[in-house]
Design a protein that fits this description.
This protein is of the alpha/beta class. The chain has a seven-stranded mixed β-sheet with strand order 3-2-1-4-5-7-6, with helices on both faces.
Length: 233
């Protein structure tokens, strides 16, 4: 691992996000060095524990910085624009995107929901190492997590946002909550949205697809924002 490149990629990426989004700039710019330092410590911990825990599919520091850390923060301005006070990261795995969001959004409370015990153990270690008091780990299946608690549910690399998953995630939201699904190519994301609207007709015309490019990564990135269904007792 070339630590110099890791620090450079993360620092430059954060500055690029500040230029791309007013919302991201408001969160990142006043604490840029602090946030970059915390993200680097987090990245080093992932790389150290990855052989034992199988956290991410790379042992390359630069790929981790771009495809995972900065990718997790690429929709920061979009997410912060929804003003969520309570966020759930479902299927958190290595803590992506939840831990980078918790670092960048200290006023928000995050729950990292992860069903696998070994990965949940890593998440607890990471939160302790980083001193992140605004995040906690919930070792549970998403179906077992207590409902109706979150303003936003985020997920990345979990599964397609099909009607079945949409309904499972919606139950975690409070009234007026939002689902934020990290996606790649626009064409594929739009096909996913069309299938979701066909399966949940109440969503017709209410889904939003927004671009969120990752600095220094020449690949499409988008986020789907979906209003959560009203919970019925």
């Amino acid at each position: 691992m070339n630590e110099g490149f890791l620090e450079e990629d993360i620092s430059q990426g954060l500055r690029a996000l500040c230029l791309d989004s007013e919302g991201a700039r408001a969160l990142l710019e006043p604490r840029l060095e602090e946030i970059a330092g915390a993200l680097c410590r987090y990245a080093r911990l992932i790389l150290a524990r990855n052989p034992a825990f199988g956290l991410v599919g790379t042992d390359c520091a630069r790929e981790l910085a771009l495809r995972h850390i900065l990718d997790s923060l690429s929709p920061l301005g979009i997410i912060s624009g929804e003003s969520p006070a309570r966020i759930a990261d479902v299927g958190s795995g290595a803590g992506l995107p939840g831990i980078p969001l918790a670092i960048a959004m200290p006023a928000a409370r995050l729950a990292l929901i992860e069903r696998k015990g070994r990965r949940a153990a890593f998440l607890r270690e990471a939160l302790d190492e980083l001193g992140l008091g605004n995040a906690q780990v919930e070792e549970a299946q998403m179906e077992e997590a207590a409902p109706g608690r979150f303003d936003m549910v985020v997920f990345r690399a979990l599964a397609p946002l099909d009607p079945r998953l949409y309904k499972k995630l919606s139950r975690l939201c409070s009234g007026g909550g939002t689902l934020a699904a990290y996606k790649g190519r626009k064409e594929k994301a739009k096909a996913e949205m069309a299938a979701l609207e066909a399966g949940v007709p109440a969503l017709a015309g209410r889904l939003r697809l927004l671009p969120c490019p990752v600095p220094a990564l020449d690949e499409e990135r988008h986020v789907i924002l979906a209003p959560a269904l009203s919970r019925r007792r």
